[in-house]
Amino acid sequence: QVRLMESGGGLVQAGGSLRLSCTASGRIDSTLYMAWHRQAPGKQRELVAGLSKYANTNYADSVKGRFTISVDKTKKTVYLQMNSLKPKDTGVYYCQWALRDEGDYWGQGTQVTVSS
């Protein structure tokens, strides 16, 4: 059983930065993929950034050049560095951790609010 604990959300002014963290507990040896998703009020959840076990990354067009996903395997933590934040980045951010033999795990979500 894997549990994910997210942190780092909050209220920030437009143009500011935040770093989200997602720390896994349990065995994650068979990690295939890690990702951050977000859900804005009244909208569907969307993929923001993903990182494969081969270190390939993918980003939503809306965040390219501003957000960076990374992982510290020793800490079992995946990060999302968010710079130049915009009000449209507001939403609940969820961490996803995909394991080969167990499927996907999700965090509880952390709120990010960007004020104009």
Written overview of the protein:
By secondary structure, this protein is mainly beta. Helix content is 0%, strand content 58%. The protein is built from no helices and eleven strands. The strands form two sheets. Strands 2, 4, 5, 6, 9, 10 and 11 form a seven-stranded mixed sheet that branches. The protein has a four-stranded antiparallel sheet with strand order 1-3-8-7, with no helix packed on it. The model has no long low-confidence stretch (mean pLDDT 96).
How are the elements arranged and paired?
Blueprint: E1 3-7, E2 10-13, E3 18-25, E4 31-39, E5 46-52, E6 57-59, E7 67-72, E8 77-82, E9 91-99, E10 103-106, E11 110-115
Parallel strand pairs: 2-11
Antiparallel strand pairs: 1-3, 3-8, 4-5, 4-9, 5-6, 7-8, 9-10, 9-11
Number of helices: 0
How much of the sequence lies in strands comes to over 45%
Tell me the Rg in angstroms.
14 Å
Shape: globular
The overall strand count is 11
Q: Which stretches are low in confidence, meaning pLDDT under 50 for 5 or more residues running?
A: none
Largest sheet: 7 strands, mixed
Report mean pLDDT, rounded to a whole number: 96
Helix-residue proportion? under 10%
Order of helices and strands: EEEEEEEEEEE
Global structural class: mainly beta
Q: Span between N and C termini?
A: 40 Å
Give the tags.
seven-stranded mixed sheet, 58% strand, mainly beta, 116 residues
Short description:
With 116 residues, the protein is an all-beta fold.
